Amino acid sequence: MMALKMSRRELVPIAVVLFVLLMASGPAVSAGKPDGTVVSKTHDGASNGVSAYSVVYFSKGLKVKGRLFVPSKCSGRKGGAKCPAVVFNHGGVDGIPGPTVARCRQLSRLGYVVFAPSYRGEDGSEGEVE
Prior knowledge:
By secondary structure, the chain is of the alpha+beta class. About 15% of the residues lie in helices and about 30% in strands.
């Protein structure tokens, strides 16, 4: 595995609110809900102190998919540690590539909550790739 060459100071936590929105789970919702409303969150498993989730949320009325990586110390439960968050946008339009997933897990092992959104129209998300 490639070593991360950035320090914590270089990575600015830009999406703590997104983490709070994505950690909320509940029943499916209908169209017309505010952006960021979570439709579903599925636990994909945990390894090396990182839990991975597949998430579906609303963006401009469309259901969009993404991946969420959460360090075990940041459970989202009462009493859990508050952790910085990063939104990790990938390149291309063919879905979230394996190297991006690996880097997201790497950042999460360093203590960051990482959200990697798919773009509209890819990975089964609604809409068209723009």
